[in-house]
Amino acid sequence: MKVLVTGGAGFIGSTVASALLDGGHVPVILDDLSTGRESFTAGRAFYRGDIADRRLVDRIFTEHPDISATVHCAGVIVVPESVRQPLRYYRENLAKTIALVDHLAGNGCRRVLFSSTAALYRPGADFGVDETSPVDPTSPYARSKALVEQVLADAAAAGEVTAVALRYFNPIGADPQLRTGLQIRDPSHALGRMIEAWFGGEKFCVTGVDWPTRDGTAIRDYVHVWDLAEAHVAALTRFDEVAATEPNRLVAVNVGTGTGTTVRELLAAFEQFTGEPFPYRETGPRPGDTAGVFNRSRRGQELLRWRPRYGIADAIGHALRWRELDAAGPAGATRTGPAGRARP
Ligand SMILES: NC(=O)c1ccc[n+]([C@@H]2O[C@H](COP(=O)([O-])OP(=O)(O)OC[C@H]3O[C@@H](n4cnc5c(N)ncnc54)[C@H](O)[C@@H]3O)[C@@H](O)[C@H]2O)c1
Ligand SMILES: O=c1ccn([C@@H]2O[C@H](COP(=O)(O)OP(=O)(O)O[C@H]3O[C@H](CO)[C@H](O)[C@H](O)[C@H]3O)[C@@H](O)[C@H]2O)c(=O)[nH]1
Question: For the chain, which domains are there?
């Protein structure tokens, strides 16, 4: 398969591209490098530009007429930022996706695998959700994803596209071969902040301790980014079969591990991995935060014939090793290096 990967210079898209290559497929990357890293595209077909640029999309399909599907990862992703800049989030994630899908359909590429998010679910009493759980996003970021799903559902009903949405839970870790990992300088997600605090010799800040969870901190389903990437390859490999399970509808599939982990539990797993106590402080929740959800659906395993292979300790290890390598290498030369930390 030859597959267009938007956002293929970013954290998840670059890992998807590696998993495609490892599976004998060919990724073609479209990325504007707004948060992506050019070195992640080395040795891969790469077009720098905006997903909404019709001329660029036309050029890609002229040069690669055998692209059979698109994985659409490009977008802006920071929940608290979306609360401050909703118009930007709706423009980047919703308006530009409509333009992209229109250009894709115009080029005869109707198979769309969309990067959606479990953040669109309303947390239930026990925080477990499946694909039929109520969708009730609480931030402009999550709402932009729910709106794209709605657009794709309508386009699928009209036969304009065949669409599958992978609703990611919380991807962490790095490519186990360390070809790519988290590329942004100042991550906002819990494990990213933990790693920066640990390398910087600072306290980790737990944001939100009054959620109705077992220990008051928010719960998430942390899925290794390599497992997530393999779920994409599985979905692409049997795309028509998966789409045919709900003809003329958007097929939504949760991609999580099935295990809920609180922030305190993630911190404990980090301490266990490094063998050192991790000092922390506590504050109120961030804007747009939710108590969280974990996956309780088996649809991903059944429809995609996929199952996660890695656990949280693997993900922490890969993320730490990537961070260490990245700080040392040319791509990370401007970053602060590990603050005298011994390798765990
Ligand atoms: N990271 C998570 O926790 C998470 C969870 C659920 C869903 N997702 C979704 O997965 C996708 C990828 O997320 P990520 O963590 O890899 O983020 P990322 O920021 O690392 O990657 C996004 C990529 O898209 C590119 N991009 C952004 N806008 C673009 C545009 N208009 N045209 C072309 N390229 C553009 C960026 O340069 C970047 O390389 C996003 O759609 C995100 O919403 C992420
Ligand atoms: O330094 C931190 C960072 C986060 N948290 C807490 O940890 C929990 C999880 O936060 P994350 O940011 O790791 O996870 P989210 O599900 O809130 O958001 C993540 O997933 C979203 C999509 O689902 C977006 O992609 C977003 O950018 C990405 O961070 C939240 O309660 C948050 O308040 C902390 O306690 N301290």
Answer: 2-173+222-255 (3.40.50.720), 190-220+258-294+310-332 (3.90.25.10)
Active site residue 141: yes
Instruction: Pick the residue whose CA is nearest to atom 31 on ligand 2.
Output: 218
Interface predicted TM-score (ipTM) of this complex, two decimals: 0.97
* Cα dist from 294 to 172, 289, 312, whole Å: 14, 15, 14
Distance between CA atoms of residues 79 and 20, nearest Å = 28
The reported pTM is: 0.95
Q: Give the residue, by CA position, lying nearest to ligand 1 atom 6.
A: 117
Residue 67, φ and ψ in degrees, nearest 5: -65, 130
Pick the atom of ligand 2 nearest to 290's CA. Answer: 31
CA of 76 to the centre of ligand 1 (A): 6
Question: What atom in ligand 2 is closest to the CA of residue 291?
Answer: 31
- pLDDT tens digits, residue range 204-222? 999 999 999 999 999 999 9
Q: Is 78 in the pocket of ligand 1 (CB under 6 A)?
A: no
Write out the two tokens for 137: 């996003």
CA distances from 182 to 190, 196, 234, 309 (A): 13, 12, 23, 20
